[in-house]
Recover the amino acids of this structure.
């Protein structure tokens, strides 16, 4: 009962619109709305009415058009950047220090002996020394097994179509039987031009061979040596490789951070496939990262290193120096990409400016916060390091390599259950690797699947160098350092091995570019409101008013439709009367049986405003 | 007959759309009406408020709101042309930039001997005269002996001088005689260094050839600078006379300079390099110049995948006076950018591996009206002499060259030739050096207007370089490396290479992140209007409709009222005057012209004539449209509601 009463009341309330007809409703709306235009339409004379009508229409359409633009702008998720620059106490970057040479030659010599003898003999052949002074005739015969897997050849390209391929050890000439790939290096104009190539066959004895050719013998030899030594060293277990590399106590001679002394124990050892043992200062893995709150060299990290250049592997790396890199805590150092050299016999000062870029993630830009949404399995996570684009690219390559060649490349970490490639187990790996490496498609796949990180930190370095130690101080410095390291009174260091490094924050140590959303929901609302207000003086309430009017007009429509239906029925009934004139008797009682059309004018529907207040319905108490 | 339909239409229009006058007969009424009916808040308060104080307060508040709106909107307008900066980072395959490599020494000294022998002799003589330096007794003796016979006149014209500052006399190089110096003294070196202590300053004097009293003396605090500058002056003179083809031959060939080349894991050779002749650096070679239409790109960062070259720097063949440092110069630039090696090159050391890591940044500024930069350089009135896309540097150099051609009649050697001009040389333009120095001085002091004309380019690409050096070849690999490289160089070169003749260079992308810094308009028209709307709405709940209202009421209506009143007054005055018997004024005629009246359609001229109270007082009925009635109904409409509320 109560419910019904309530419903009836609600109906009445809804029905209690401002007019009976559309016109009445519209006039009422125009007169009472809070938007500015419509009132003018009805208040002015006929000519102005017309003007105001068009003006209102124009403004309304302008408002909608501009709203469209604003919403579009909002949905395009623009960002604005703000730049801040200055000095603040910051985490000192992690500093990775490596030797350009991965292993001590004295340690790996037994492994590489065969290879070295081969390359020496090959060089002798290439350089064609005068036959008279061959002194190493007595040396044991060369083991050509390694050679036969990937031989070095000379390619004579005088005749473009039929290059003559000359194996350095077997002097038989095989004319152009194998397919040539790679860039043609020869030049027809030069008289006696020969290129070198190395020959990688996919399988022993098969015809599917590729010559990678080089215009320079130096490059060819280096590349060949790297391929061979990679294959040899990949069989050595990791702890053995770590042992063969440079030890922290031999390499890091002195360390000073700010005013506090530090030593090689403050460095975290990591095995880097390119550079052997690397040592990371302030990596932040085990302990809290160090802060630096003062600019200037006095408050930075000062290191003295020894790279012992005499112990370099001669054919592997021709550049000598320390390789170092500044990077964020808990990130893996990719020295080949971001590393810099420090030269022996010099003091290198590096002023650091931290260049940060903080970006908003999706949907503002397509970057990843921690790499969890990247479809590539991050192989560097075994080092407990954070995601980076370099890690992603390398993991992607290694995954491809494992998929296609069946083994992992020595320079990248291994997925589970896979071994490193070597010549014995995977005789075709070098071919597979070099074709994969030069495949542009593979690179593009990796570029497409990897995403950059949202927070990009770069360390901008200002590098300057000076000779160190000076001639006057050389003597005592070498003495002390040798004594401290080897406990000997002999000088075991020299200019070719010693490096001094100063790494410190510059006067301005950070430059942060941070993004913020250019368009927020607040911005959108205030702009929408601004537009509506500017053209029509409207607000959300006006929209609600408009909605109300629509509901009212719907009611009027419904009432009209009902009225029309009833009228139709009546007319039909009347038509029935006229048609069936003889049914008078029957029709009359029927008409009486019908209710006397009580609903035609909705009785409760009020044009109440005009009526005196006493006539108000009983439902007004709901107000 | 032709005007009949037109008249009909106007008559009909007038009938259907009758013109009514303003809403109120007098100004104060109009204001009152406006205040009561306007859509803006505040005005109504003024009228409705009771009491003087309150009304005053409302007037003040309304006025301050208006003031605030005007102030804020002006502020919005002024800040309309501001830009916001956005930085995007994109990880992608990057185009490798062009890398231009030059030997620091422009031409092989051995090949230049025939052109420079005289100059060198002169220089050596100067060294001996002033500093008592001689590198080999016999050589200098001979040169001294030779001098008298071969000395050409232009060396005599611009000799090196030793100046005694206080006495203003100079010892001339050749004659050894002292002579008085005229003209102003320019300290070319520095104005900070007080050269009074040193007993002698060295320099040279340039005189206007047409008017020998016009002289400028250039002095240097150090003889090193003086001799180099003087040498360069004469050197340019000589080089300007040698045709380009010969110069290209005199300089290094690609085979001379490049020993090995390796890019992106593959071998490359001299065909990947484009020759580019630089006036001061001789033959330079540009890797990936994009000349054959293809630009190489890198899809992997890191030192192995960039460009690695070993350069052969033939130190023995260096010009001892022109260049005093050894090595190569490189510059990383965009393919359509001109490499200004002499200005922004990076020097490469010999016997070392220089590794250069690049980081790519692209920037774009908004051009006018946001900032004063140029998109293509087409709007700069300076002809681009370089065959490359516009840059500020190009503009400045072109501007200077143009000024040089205009005032000196010939072109400076270090910059390209404008059409129809030729390089300055002493034979044809004996005056050019003086002219050049004068002009250059003006240019540096920004008196030529070049710095004002030239604008910076709106978009530019920048490769930030991180340079580090390692020893190369390492002591243990030195032996085989040099042997193999000598073999590479070719058997014809029978000597083993020296490591100080070699430089190893690696140029690579540190990462493939491209930073794009762009300016965007901070405001669009939409946002400006929104902000206007926000301000108008906040202070007065006003909108464009209100603005139209204000225009209507304050300008059209009140003007019409004022005009009407003036008209009435004039009429009154006229009727008084007319009674005294005078000719009607001209305006009256215009008003009475029936054609005129008919054509005058809507606004206030017709409105003017509406009430026409002849002589009676004003209380004529107000125009029917005037709605105090409406107001009353509005109140009665509101009344029931309030009553209704009161009842309950």
């Amino acid at each position: 009962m109560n419910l019904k009463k309530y419903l009836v009341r609600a109906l009445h309330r809804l029905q209690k619109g401002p007019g009976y007809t559309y016109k009445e409703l519209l006039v009422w709306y125009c007169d009472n709305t809070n938007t500015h235009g419509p009132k003018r339409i009805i208040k002015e004379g006929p000519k102005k009415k017309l003007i105001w009508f068009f003006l209102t229409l124009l403004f309304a359409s302008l408002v909608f058009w501009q709203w469209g633009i604003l919403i579009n702008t909002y949905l395009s998720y623009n960002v604005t950047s703000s730049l801040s620059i200055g000095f603040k106490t910051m985490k000192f970057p992690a500093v990775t220090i490596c030797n350009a040479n991965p292993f001590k030659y004295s340690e790996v010599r037994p492994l590489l002996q065969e290879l070295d003898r081969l390359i020496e003999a090959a060089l002798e052949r290439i350089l064609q020394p005068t036959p008279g002074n061959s002194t190493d005739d007595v040396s044991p015969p060369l083991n050509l097994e390694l050679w036969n897997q990937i031989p070095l050849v000379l390619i004579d390209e005088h005749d473009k179509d039929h290059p003559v391929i000359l194996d350095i050890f077997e002097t038989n000439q095989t004319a152009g039987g194998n397919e040539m790939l790679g860039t043609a290096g020869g030049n027809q104009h030069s008289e006696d031009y020969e290129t070198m190539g190395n020959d990688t066959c996919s399988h022993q004895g098969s015809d599917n061979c590729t010559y990678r050719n080089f215009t320079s013998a130096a490059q060819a030899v280096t590349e060949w040596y790297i391929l061979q030594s990679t294959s040899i060293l990949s069989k050595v277990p990791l702890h053995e490789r770590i042992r063969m590399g440079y030890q922290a106590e031999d390499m890091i001679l002195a360390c000073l951070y700010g005013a506090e002394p530090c030593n090689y124990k403050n460095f975290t050892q990591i095995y880097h496939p390119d550079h052997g043992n690397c040592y990371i200062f302030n990596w932040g893995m085990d302990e809290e990262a160090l802060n630096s709150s003062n600019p200037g060299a006095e408050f930075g990290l000062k290191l003295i290193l020894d790279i012992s250049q005499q112990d370099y592997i001669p054919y592997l790396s021709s550049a000598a120096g320390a390789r170092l890199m500044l990077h964020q805590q808990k990130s893996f150092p990719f020295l080949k990409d971001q590393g810099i050299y420090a030269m022996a016999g010099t003091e290198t000062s590096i002023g650091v400016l931290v260049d940060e870029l903080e970006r908003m993630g999706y949907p503002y830009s397509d970057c990843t916060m921690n790499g969890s949404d990247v479809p590539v399995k991050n192989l560097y996570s075994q080092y407990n390091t954070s995601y980076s684009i370099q890690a992603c690219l390398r993991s992607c390559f290694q995954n491809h390599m494992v998929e296609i060649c069946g083994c992992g490349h020595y320079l990248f970490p291994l997925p589970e259950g896979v071994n490193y490639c070597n010549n014995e187990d995977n005789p075709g790996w070098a071919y597979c690797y070099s074709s994969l490496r030069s495949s542009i498609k593979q690179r593009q796949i990796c570029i497409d699947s990897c995403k950059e990180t949202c927070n990009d930190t770069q360390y901008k370095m200002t590098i300057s160098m000076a000779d160190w130690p000076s001639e006057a101080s050389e003597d005592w410095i070498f003495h002390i350092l040798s004594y401290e390291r080897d406990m000997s009174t002999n000088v075991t260091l020299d200019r070719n091995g010693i490096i001094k490094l100063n790494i410190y924050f510059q006067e301005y140590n950070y430059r942060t570019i941070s993004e913020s959303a250019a368009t927020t929901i607040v911005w959108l609302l205030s702009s929408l409101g601004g537009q509506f207000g500017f053209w029509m003086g409207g607000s959300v309430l006006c929209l609600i008013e408009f909605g109300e009017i629509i509901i009212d007009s719907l009611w009027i429509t419904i009432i009209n439709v009902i009225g029309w239906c009833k009228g139709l029925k009546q007319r039909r009934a009347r038509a029935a009367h006229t048609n069936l004139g003889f049914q008078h008797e029957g029709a009359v009682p029927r008409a009486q049986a019908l209710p006397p059309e009580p609903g035609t004018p909705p009785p409760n529907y009020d044009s109440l405003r005009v009526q005196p207040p006493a006539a108000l319905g009983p439902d007004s108490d709901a107000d | 007959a032709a005007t009949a339909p037109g008249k009909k239409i106007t008559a009909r229009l007038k009938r259907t759309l009758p013109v009514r006058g303003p809403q109120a007969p007098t100004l104060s009424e109009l204001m009152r009406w406006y205040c009561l009916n306007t859509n803006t808040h505040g005005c109504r308060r003024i009228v409705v408020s009771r009491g003087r104080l309150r009304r005053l307060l409302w007037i003040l508040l309304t006025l301050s709101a208006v003031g605030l709106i005007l102030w804020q909107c002006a502020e919005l307008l002024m800040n309309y042309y501001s830009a916001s900066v956005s930085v995007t980072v994109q990880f992608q395959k990057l185009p490798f930039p062009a890398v231009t490599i030059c030997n620091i020494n422009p031409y092989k000294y051995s090949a230049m001997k025939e052109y420079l022998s005289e100059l060198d002799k002169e220089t050596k003589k100067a060294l001996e005269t002033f500093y008592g330096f001689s590198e080999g007794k016999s050589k200098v003796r001979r040169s001294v002996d030779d001098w008298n016979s071969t000395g050409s006149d232009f060396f005599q014209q611009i000799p090196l001088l030793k100046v005694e500052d206080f006495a203003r006399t100079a010892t001339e190089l050749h004659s050894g005689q002292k002579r008085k110096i005229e003209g102003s003294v320019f300290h070319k070196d520095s104005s900070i260094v007080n050269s009074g202590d040193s007993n002698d300053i060295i320099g040279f004097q340039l005189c206007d050839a047409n008017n020998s009293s016009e002289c400028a003396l250039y002095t240097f605090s150090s003889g090193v600078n003086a001799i180099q500058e003087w040498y360069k002056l004469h050197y340019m003179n000589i080089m300007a006379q040698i045709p380009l083809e010969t110069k290209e031959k005199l300089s290094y060939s690609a085979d001379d300079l490049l020993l090995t080349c390796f890019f992106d894991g593959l071998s490359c050779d001299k065909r990947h390099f484009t020759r580019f002749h630089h006036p001061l650096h001789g033959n330079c070679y540009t890797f990936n110049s994009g000349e054959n239409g293809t630009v190489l790109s890198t899809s992997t960062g890191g030192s192995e995948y960039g460009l690695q070259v070993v350069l052969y720097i033939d130190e023995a063949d260096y010009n001892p006076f022109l260049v005093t440092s050894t090595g190569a110069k490189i510059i990383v630039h965009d393919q359509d950018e001109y490499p200004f090696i002499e200005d922004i090159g990076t020097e490469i050391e010999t016997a070392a591996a220089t590794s250069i890591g690049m980081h790519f940044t692209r920037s774009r500024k908004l051009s006018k009206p946001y900032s004063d930069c140029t998109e293509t350089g087409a709007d700069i009135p300076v002809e681009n002499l370089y065959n490359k896309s516009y840059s500020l540097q190009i503009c400045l150099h072109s501007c200077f060259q143009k000024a040089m051609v205009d005032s000196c009649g010939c072109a400076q050697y270090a910059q390209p030739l404008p059409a129809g001009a030729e390089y300055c040389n002493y034979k044809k333009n004996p005056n050019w050096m003086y002219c050049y120095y004068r002009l250059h001085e003006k240019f540096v002091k920004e008196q030529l207007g070049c710095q004002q004309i030239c604008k910076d380019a709106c978009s530019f690409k920048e490769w930030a370089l991180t340079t580090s050096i390692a020893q190369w070849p390492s002591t243990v690999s030195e032996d085989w490396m040099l042997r193999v490289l000598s073999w590479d160089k070719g058997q014809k070169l029978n000597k083993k290479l020296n490591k100080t003749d070699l430089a190893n260079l690696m140029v690579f992308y540190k990462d493939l992140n491209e930073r794009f810094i762009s300016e965007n308009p901070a405001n669009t028209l939409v946002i400006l209007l929104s902000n206007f709307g926000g301000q108008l709405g906040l202070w007065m709940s006003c909108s464009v409709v209100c603005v139209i209202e204000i225009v209507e009421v304050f300008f059209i209506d009140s003007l019409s009222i004022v005009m009407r009143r003036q008209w009435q007054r004039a009429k009154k005055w006229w009727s008084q005057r007319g009674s005294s018997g005078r000719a009607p004024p001209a305006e009256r005629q215009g008003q009475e012209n029936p054609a005129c009246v008919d054509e005058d359609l809507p606004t206030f001229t017709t409105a003017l004539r509406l009430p026409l109270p002849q002589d009676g007082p004003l209380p004529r009925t107000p125009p029917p449209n005037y709605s105090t009635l409406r107001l009353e109904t509005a109140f009665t409409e509101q009344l029931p509601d309030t009553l209704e509320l009161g009842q309950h």
Remarks:
- Residues 375-446 of chain B form a domain with the Helix Hairpins fold (CATH 1.10.287.820).
